[in-house]
Amino acid sequence: MKTHVTVAVTGLNATDNPGPGVPVIRALRESTHLSDLRIVGLVYEHLEPGIFMRHLVDKVYTLPLPSLGTDALLARLQYIHERENIDVLIPNYDAELPNFIHLQERLSRMGINTLLPSSDQFERRQKYQLPELAQQVDVATPATATARTLAELGHALARTGYPAMIKGRFYEAYLARSYEEALGWFYKLTAKWGVPVIVQQHIQGTELNVTALGDGTGRLIGAVPTRKTYITNMGKGWAGVAIEDDEIIELTRRIVRELKWPGGMEVELLRDQRDDTLYLIELNPRFPAWVYFAHGCGQNHPEALVRIAMGQQVEPFDDYHKGKMFVRYSWDMVCDLKDFEKISTTGEL
Amino acid sequence: MKLKNSVAISDSGFIFNAATGDSFTTNDTGRFLLSLLKEGHDEVSELVERMIDHYEVERELAEKDVLDFLSLLQQWHLLDR
Question: Among A124-133, A255-264, B44-53, where is mean pLDDT lowest?
Answer without folding.
Answer: A124-133
